[in-house]
Design brief:
Shape: elongated
CATH topology: Helix Hairpins
Radius of gyration: 19 Å
CATH architecture: Orthogonal Bundle
Helix content: 55-70%
Largest sheet: none
Order of helices and strands: HHH
Strand content: under 5%
Length: 105
């Protein structure tokens, strides 16, 4: 049981890492395009938007506001995809192994 548990923990860690990488890419884009004043603010805004928390204490300039919605939609889709992927891996790990030498139905 513990090897399977550790494998799922590692998978969850990688999924979280990939989400954080995407949030960081959005933030760097906002700073590069001068839509956010600094990287710290951009990371905060991006994480709040990507996770669809949406506090509203930081907003994009009017010309960039539509992009915030695109990031939120991307975050919803990627979190849903991650959940489905994690569940698919979990189900596959619990399936009994089939011996390749046994006759196929």
């Amino acid at each position: 049981m513990w090897p399977l548990t550790w494998q799922l923990i590692r998978l969850a860690g990688w999924i979280i890492f990939l989400h954080l990488a995407e949030i960081t890419l959005w933030a760097v884009f906002y700073v590069w395009q001068q839509a956010m004043p600094d990287l710290h603010s951009a990371l905060y805004f991006s994480s709040v938007t990507y996770t669809t928390t949406g506090y509203g204490d930081l907003v994009l300039p009017p010309d960039w506001r539509l992009l915030g919605g695109v990031e939120a939609l991307t975050g919803i889709l990627m979190c849903g995809w991650s959940t489905g992927f994690f569940f698919a891996v979990f189900v596959r790990m619990l399936q009994p192994r089939r011996d390749d030498s046994s006759p196929q139905p």
